[in-house]
Design goal:
283 residues, alpha/beta, Rossmann fold, 2 domains, 7-stranded mixed beta sheet, 7 strands, 42% helix, 13% strand
Length: 283
Amino acid sequence: MNKKIHRKQANIDSKVVEDFGKEWEAFNQEAFIGESLESAFNQYFCIFPMEKLNTNSVGFDMGCGSGRWAKLIAPKVKQLNCIDPSNLALEQAKKNLSEFPNCKFECASVSDNTLETNSQDFGYCLGVLHHIPNTLEGLKCCAEKMKKGAPFLLYMYYRFDNKPIWFKFIWKLSDIFRRVISKLPFPIKLFVCFVIAVFIYYPLSRFSLLLEKLKINVSNIPLSDHRNKTFYVLKTDALDRFGTRLEKRFTKNEIREMMAKAGFKDISFSNGTPFWVAIGTKS
């Protein structure tokens, strides 16, 4: 019989949680549907073994936010545990997932939720663990919840280990602005990030789209991954990028090592954007 582990101290930054709650309230992803959602979903889940999911599967969406990925996982499984430390985010998730009674919601962090140990048939955590104080501990907590052999999908920001030096320089320059913008009051931050979406994200992404139509390789052009994405996604991602106070980045090897230390094996990575998306199984 599975036993609940003792609840640990929340592995969160309270200001980051507050900011993300406001972000999902501002961009609740109700408009993120259809082909746009499916295309984004496939970028992450293309390496996930969907054949392992069935109507008996119970798993988790760790840091579910507005529940956008859960929309496409919930119909495939018996129960999806949607966990997020922000009440504001969970309220949006509950609205977006109201048609799925098999979604269960808990306001908790990766470390202090009430999932039982060795209880989950699958799990995923996308774009979350690079925003918490102790990333490795967060990975270990995910592993603790999972059954042996259960698949786990992870996405964490890359440290440009597959990009040229000039690309890294552009990021370092942008990060100076992030450190300032992220500390602004939310209404001002929201406006500034909207301006960034209009004058930086949109032009650069559409320039990449134009170059791609001319048969030019755009893989090293900043924001080229956004070339086919809607302006709604651009607005969300600009706020996500420049509005977050705590941001960590990792190389592929660092992610592989952390996953192994946390208790995962058979670790592999997606070859496509966004970088890095990894899949592993509980040892």
